[in-house]
Amino acid sequence: MTLPTPRAVIFDWDDTIIDSWGPTLKALNKALVAMGEKPWSDEEARARAGASAKDLFKLLFGDRWQEADKIFFDSLRQLFLENIPIFPDVEPVLKELAERKIYMAVVSNKRGPLLRTEAKDTGFDKYFTKVVGAGDAERDKPDPAPVHMALAGSGIAPGPHVWFIGDSHTDMLCAFNAGCTALLVETKPPPEETLAKHPPLKRFKNHAVLMEFLKIYFT
Q1: Phi, psi values for residue 49, rounded to 5°
Q2: Close Cβ partners of 132 (under 8 Å, ≥ 6 residues apart)
Q3: How much is the average pLDDT of 14-39?
Q4: Which terminal CB of the chain, N or C, has fewer other CB atoms within 10 Å?
Q5: Which helix or strand (DSSP H or E) is residue 41 part of?
Q6: How many C-beta neighbours within 10 Å does residue 68 have?
Q7: What is the DSSP string of 106-166?
Q8: Under a CB-based contact definition with an 8 Å cutoff, are residues 123 and 89 in contact?
């Protein structure tokens, strides 16, 4: 299938723009252990994570979800206090799209205020018209509500001409639910059986490969 020419590109944040899987898994397991659960392996976490922390902890702990949520976010903030790990080849991708005047936004399941702080601290906020996180829209990913919020005011409606670039099955499902074109960057590939339910239109091993594709695509 031909990749539609993008009028807008929406990016996930964690493990798509910033390399946060290691710190996130550490923070998640700290919360799980504190709540009396066994820590998750890398493989288990890739299969089970993807929802917003609020939705995940509500599912796991019910009315006690806020306890786990606080432990998780306090730990994550501490891990990111001195350094936000950015994928080394991601900024050329953002620059290429910006130079082509393509509308860009972020849709993430990271809590909105924290997400926007990280976008500002990395200096990447200049590339994005909207930065939408968990709790900003009526519902979080994979619901399409945050995609609609990200495109609001742009004059661009969700559709195949909107690329959604992410790393997880949740991102691919969100793109599907919004009617957008799903593209996967394989920074931490989800289990194939999970990905098969809503596969991406195209997959890239890393941001450098994505950049090479863009150079050819826009030629």
Answers
A1: -80, 170
A2: 105, 106, 107, 108, 112, 146, 149, 150
A3: 92
A4: C
A5: none
A6: 23
A7: EEEEEEHHHHHHHHHHHTGGGG-SEEEEETTSSS-TTSSHHHHHHHTTTT--SSTTEEEEE
A8: no
Q: What is the largest CA-CA distance in the chain?
A: 55
* 183 DSSP β-pair partners: 165, 202
- What pLDDT, on a 0 to 100 scale, did the predictor assign at position 47? 79
- Distance CA(22)–CA(17), nearest Å, equals 14
Determine which helix (DSSP H) or strand (DSSP E) holds 204, and give its type and residue range.
Answer: strand 202-204
Orientation angle between helical segments 65-79 and 21-34, nearest 10 degrees: 140
pLDDT digits (tens, 9 = 90+) for 174-196: 999 999 999 999 998 888 888 89
What is the model's pLDDT at position 188? 85
The alpha carbon of residue 54 and the mean position of all alpha carbons in its chain are separated, in whole angstroms, by: 15
Instruction: Decide: 73 and 67 in contact? Cβ < 8 Å.
Output: no
| Distance in angstroms (rounded) separating the CA atoms of residues 156 and 164 | 14
Nearest Cα neighbor of 110 from 179, 210, 37, 11 is 11
Residues linked to residue 9 through DSSP beta bridges, in sequence order: 104, 163
pLDDT band at 1 (very low <50, low <70, confident <90, very high): low
Cis peptide before 142 (omega within 30 of 0): yes
Q: Sign of torsion, CA 212 213 214 219? A: positive
69 in Cβ contact with 191 (< 8 Å)? no
How many residues can be counted in the chain? Answer: 219
Residue 86: pLDDT above 80? yes
